[in-house]
TrEMBL record:
Pfam families: Mito_carr (PF00153). SUPFAM superfamilies: Mitochondrial carrier. PROSITE patterns: SOLCAR (PS50920). This is Mitochondrial adenine nucleotide transporter ADNT1. It is a multi-pass membrane protein. Solcar repeats lie at residues 39-126, 142-230, 245-346. Keywords: Membrane, Mitochondrion, Mitochondrion inner membrane, Repeat, Transmembrane, Transmembrane helix, Transport. Belongs to the mitochondrial carrier (TC 2.A.29) family. It comes from Linum tenue. It is found in: Mitochondrion inner membrane. PANTHER family: SOLUTE CARRIER FAMILY 25 (PTHR24089).
Length: 355
């Protein structure tokens, strides 16, 4: 009886040792695989950040003019069109005026772009995995609608994470040398808004941003990826070389994606920008709440901002700044997508967004 107990105990001990050894082996393999995975994540984030910084700096003058057109008082017009607006900024503020707020914009867009591209890749993987499980088809691919969903998720995550920087960037962009109150930079603007208007002020206009980012970022990714996929599979225009699309073709796909996305979401961008200016009494040439230049700018919410804008300025006010934004967004989105893929190639990351 005792010998049987000893035998049983010995077998249990051997089994435990074997199990522990197997677990240790799996853990060591996990550490080995986590290293390259972590490095790949870092490379993906770097590629997304570089893409955002390069694309936004390239179109910084148009970005500033767009914001100035969105919020200017219709009874005190200084900026009347793209060419005239750029000339006016150059004449009154010089070369540096064209890039005012770009430092803040890059400080926001670099992490925003990094998180956005990475979130899109991760959301795409998760959605594809869930879709394959639901359909039972292990070879299923992302449809344009599923890409739209992944892009929407990425846009909401990235925008929410960096929204205070966007709000501050808007104010730094609008102020001029003649503004009574001057923000000296990003940190000073953040601290001033927190002290004078409270923490909630940093998220003014967040709701229209969330609503707007779904069609904007979602359509950007969905149109870009679907166009690329269609061109690679059909080769309709003989644009495929060595199973790859040229940089020019990818730029064209990015341009089409940017045009579709920004046209659908632009009115929400105008409302967001106007809501961000609420509470800032020293903004230069900013539209007033009643449209007559007498009452201070004040909106009770997104719906109220829409209502007042259309009532006092007409439906066309929702598309103020669309021309410079269209000129800006086409190369901006195109450059961002192509730069992202090129940087990932340079860094040696095998997986790209279209994979």
């Amino acid at each position: 009886m005792a010998s049987e107990d000893v035998k049983t105990s010995g077998e249990a001990a051997v089994s435990t040792i074997v199990n522990l050894a197997e677990e240790a082996k799996l853990a060591s393999e996990g550490v080995k695989t986590q290293g390259p995975a972590f490095l790949s994540i870092c490379k993906s984030l770097v590629a997304g950040g570089v893409a955002g910084g390069v694309s936004r700096t390239a179109v910084a003058p148009l970005e500033r003019l767009k914001i100035l057109l969105q919020v200017q008082n219709p009874h005190s017009i200084k900026y009347n069109g793209t060419i005239q607006g750029l000339k006016y900024i150059w004449r009154t503020e010089g070369f540096r005026g064209l890039f005012k707020g770009n430092g803040t914009n890059c400080a926001r867009i670099v992490p925003n772009s990094a998180v956005k591209f990475f979130s899109y890749e991760e959301a795409s993987k998760g959605i594809l995995w869930f879709y394959r499980r639901q359909t039972g088809n292990d070879d299923a691919q992302l449809s344009p609608l599923l890409r739209l969903g992944a892009g929407a998720c990425a846009g909401i995550i990235a925008m929410s994470a960096t929204y205070p920087m966007d709000m501050v960037r808007g104010r730094l962009t609008v102020q001029t040398d003649k503004s009574p109150h001057q923000y000296r930079g990003i940190v000073h603007a953040l601290s001033t808004v927190l002290k004078e208007e409270g923490p909630r002020a940093l998220y003014k206009g967040w709701l229209p941003s969330v609503i707007g980012v779904v069609p904007y970022v979602g359509l950007n990714f969905a149109v870009y990826e679907s166009l690329k996929d269609w061109l690679l599979k059909s080769n309709t225009f003989n644009l495929v070389e060595n199973n790859e699309l040229s940089v020019t073709t990818r730029l064209a796909c990015g341009a089409a994606a940017g045009t579709v996305g920004q046209t659908v979401a632009y009115p929400l961008d105008v409302i967001r920008r106007r809501m961000q200016m609420v509470g800032w009494k020293d903004a230069a040439s900013v539209v007033t709440g009643d449209g007559r230049g007498k009452a201070p700018l004040e909106y009770t919410g997104m719906v109220d901002a829409f209502r007042k804008t259309v009532r006092y300025e007409g439906f066309g006010a929702l598309y103020k700044g669309l021309v410079p934004n269209s000129v800006k967004v086409v190369p901006s989105i195109a450059i961002a997508f192509v730069t992202y893929e090129m940087v990932k190639d340079v860094l040696g990351v095998e997986m790209r967004i279209s994979d």
